[in-house]
Design brief:
It contains 8 helices and 13 strands. By secondary structure, the protein is of the alpha/beta class. Helix 3 packs parallel to helix 4 and helix 5 crosses helix 7. Bound molecules: NADP nicotinamide-adenine-dinucleotide phosphate. NADP nicotinamide-adenine-dinucleotide phosphate binds next to helix 1, strand 5 and strand 7.
Length: 316
Amino acid sequence: MILVTGATGYVGGRLVPRLLADGRRVRVLARDPSRLAGRAWLPRVEVATGDVLDPATLAPALGRVSTAYYLVHGMAEGGRFGERDLAAAEAFGRAARQAGVERIVYLGALGDPATGLSAHLRSRQETGERLRAAGVPVTELRAEGAAPAVRLSAQEGMIVERRQLPVPAPPEALFRSFAGLGGERGWLYANWAWRLRGAVDRLVGGVGFRRGRRDRDQLRAGDALDFWRVEAVEPPSLLRLRAEMKLPGRAWLQLEARPAQGGSVLVQTAYFAPRGLPGHLYWYALYPAHAAIFRNLVRRVAERARTPRPPAAARG
Ligand SMILES: NC(=O)c1ccc[n+]([C@@H]2O[C@H](COP(=O)([O-])OP(=O)(O)OC[C@H]3O[C@@H](n4cnc5c(N)ncnc54)[C@H](OP(=O)(O)O)[C@@H]3O)[C@@H](O)[C@H]2O)c1
């Protein structure tokens, strides 16, 4: 039996079908199994409810397991995620030894400790050490971690697409960066594609892209922002926009700055509630373009947060 932790996540969700295709028996560990809804592979796996921070839930999940994949990190929760991740790895290593697990496979992140790692990369490497501490052999793979982690899930009929990226800047700087999107400053990546979407919206009788924003820096709930409406704005942590362009469904874009060790974590969540088959077709047809735009939007928002602000006079 193989246990896959982090099965609701990006890597875990892609590993499970590959293991099943190889003829393996798979059990997945999830804190909230309802987040696995909609996965095509779900009927073919055992599901254990558990939290790597709660050792009592690990013993049943690890029973009869020969290999356990450790694909967990708590970055999305912000705060002192590094310390929490280390405590979780230690608890998991100990529970695995008690359960007689033969091997743990851990996917961490690349980085040379001699050159000074970010809090995120350091914690990923220390997680490998903590997993090994209890004595179960650990195979540690290290991958390039520069891409924002992305997670797709379905919640109550809604497609949820979440990207997160650690940013070495305080939440205030991150908030300023994403609260300045749109209007004359644009959308930081592929502005032409945003404008094209606005033009198409005008053609079909929608509001298009012309509304811009009321104020270059300030946002208030209820403001129009290009083809969005500001639904919630909570400095310095959250901005939620509701799409007002013509769509076969309802859509929101939420940006959050969560305080974390060494700065913040930027969490970008796109929600889409498709209306019938046209809604689903629309989402899947546009997914490649929209994934590229959202992935780069996260990177650019983070870059802008790290760039010192020009003096007020220069900002005009
Ligand atoms: N994605 C990449 O591009 C990438 C690149 C390089 C390396 N990696 C490494 O691959 C590993 C997995 O990354 P990922 O991108 O797949 O992460 P992810 O999409 O953010 O998923 C994280 C997973 O951890 C789970 N989790 C968090 N806290 C937990 C807890 N206390 N107990 C149980 N489960 C918990 C989450 O479950 P919930 O649904 O309950 O929150 C989720 O399934 C990480 O070590 C990462 O450093 C990823």
